[in-house]
UniProtKB/TrEMBL annotation:
Family: Belongs to the CSN3 family.
Source domain of life: Eukaryota
Domain PCI: 288-378
Biological process according to GO: ubiquitin-dependent protein catabolic process
UniProt cross-references to Gene3D superfamilies, sorted A to Z: 1.25.40.570
Keywords assigned: Cytoplasm, Mitochondrion, Nucleus, Signalosome
Name by which UniProt lists this protein: COP9 signalosome complex subunit 3
Subcellular location: Cytoplasm; Nucleus
């Protein structure tokens, strides 16, 4: 009997996905020898193979190389598409590290992985979102979306709450920071700036003894998005950020730390600062965010006018908003009306702007649905906090430490407990 036939018989005889994984691990040499033939059958949908086995064949084929061949690359992409469309959680429970290595290898091979975005999203949504878990595959999925400029498919994944990690596939600290950094970039690309700000705050508030490159890049984007969301009265970094971050991040992120002061000095000063540092912004790929921050500050100036005047000429609006002409002011006002941030009308004959009262849209069905959804999430968070508190209160190692520590040294012990890991 040939080794190939023997391998297939062993796979077919496996009683469970765990047994399939054991067969593949124990017969790695045979897996390497027959990986390409197996993937050819998977890609053409001619060979029914347990998807746990597909993960091992994919990992083996990619490690062997030879993907310069157009035919072999097509086999890998086709097999990956079939693999990620599989709704079973078995491969992700039995061979999670191989799945991540497959995706990393594909990213190293090519950045054009658009055809894998939806299968990847479906896989994450079916397997991990219901369990509220985060894995390294989440980080890789967001990287695929960002590299290909496709952001909407990532929204259901990054909007889902995360309460834990897959024990067999824990993300490294770097992968965890990258996930939230990429999530912030996706939210920013979709103009969901408050959510982006929250993601960057998670990156910056991570426990650290020295700044990481990810934190510096997150702060640069946060500085601009902060101006978009909060204007010249921005939210400071969370107080629970490490002392290292609070003391050194401004100096490590120049000139971004100076933009707030320029904005507070007025629109001309902020615009001049952006022009002076245009090359740096372009190199950091933050020039688009800087322009949006400029436009957001101009819109805030227009809204301030609405708080003080009933009617105003477009010439005065242009002067207050720092735009070059009456036509530019009119275009800005129309944009604000379209997005619902300003209620006004323009008399074209007199070039006068009349401000109106905002409509009450809080009694419609969409607003009610959104409110109920938020209440549901708050109740869910409340229940999980109570559950975690109860679990901690009955955790024997924790109780022993609390009971054994003298009252006089309780404060010192609480600091040391920050490094204690609870299962």
């Amino acid at each position: 009997m040939s080794a190939e036939v023997d391998l297939w018989q062993a796979i077919a005889a496996a009683a469970s996905d765990g047994d399939v994984a054991a067969v593949m691990r124990n017969r790695q040499r045979d897996v390497d020898d027959h990986a390409w033939a197996a993937l050819s059958g998977v890609a053409r949908a001619t060979t029914p193979i347990p998807f746990v086995a597909v993960a091992y064949f994919l990992d083996s084929a990619i490690r062997q190389g030879g993907l310069d061949s157009k035919e072999r690359r097509a086999h890998v992409i086709g097999a990956c598409r079939a693999f990620f469309q599989n709704t079973s959680s078995a491969p992700f429970d039995e061979a999670p590290e191989r799945i991540c290595s497959i995706t990393k290898a594909l990213l190293a091979l090519t950045s054009d992985l658009r055809e894998l975005i939806l299968p990847l999203r479906r896989c994450l949504h079916q397997v991990y979102v219901p369990r509220n878990l985060q894995t390294p595959l989440h980080t890789l999925f967001l990287l695929v979306c960002l590299r290909n400029g496709v952001y909407e498919p990532a929204l259901p994944i990054i909007s889902a709450p995360v309460y834990g990690f897959q024990p067999k596939n824990l993300p490294t600290p770097q992968e965890h920071l990258q996930y939230h950094y990429y999530a912030g970039m996706v939210f920013a690309a979709l103009k969901r700036f408050p959510a982006a700000l929250a993601e960057f705050d998670i990156v910056l508030s991570a426990v650290s003894t020295k700044l990481s490159a990810i934190q510096i890049e997150a702060y640069k984007k946060r500085a601009l998005i902060n101006l978009i969301v909060h204007g010249t009265d921005p939210v400071r970094l969370p107080r629970y950020c490490s002392t290292t971050v609070l003391k050194t991040i401004d100096g490590a992120s120049l000139p971004y730390g100076t933009f707030l002061g320029a904005a507070q000095a007025g629109l001309p000063a902020f615009e001049a600062a952006l022009i002076d540092h245009q090359a740096t912004l372009a190199d950091d790929k933050n020039l688009g965010l800087a322009k949006q921050a400029m436009k957001s500050l101009r819109k805030r100036q227009v809204r301030k006018l609405a708080d003080s005047y009933l009617t105003l000429s477009l010439v005065d609006v242009a002067e207050a908003a720092g735009v070059a002409s009456q036509d530019a002011a009119q275009a800005l006002v129309f944009e604000m009306i379209d997005e619902g941030s300003l209620f006004a009308s323009i008399d074209q004959q007199t070039a006068m702007l009349t401000f109106g009262e905002p409509r009450d849209d809080f009694d419609d069905e969409d607003a009610t649905t959104a409110l109920l959804d938020q209440l549901r999430r708050v109740n869910e968070y409340h229940d999980r906090v109570l559950e975690a508190n109860l679990e901690l209160a009955t955790y024997t190692p924790y109780l022993k430490r609390v009971v054994d520590v003298p009252q006089a040294t309780a404060a010192q012990s609480s600091c040391q407990d920050s490094q204690y890991q609870f299962a």
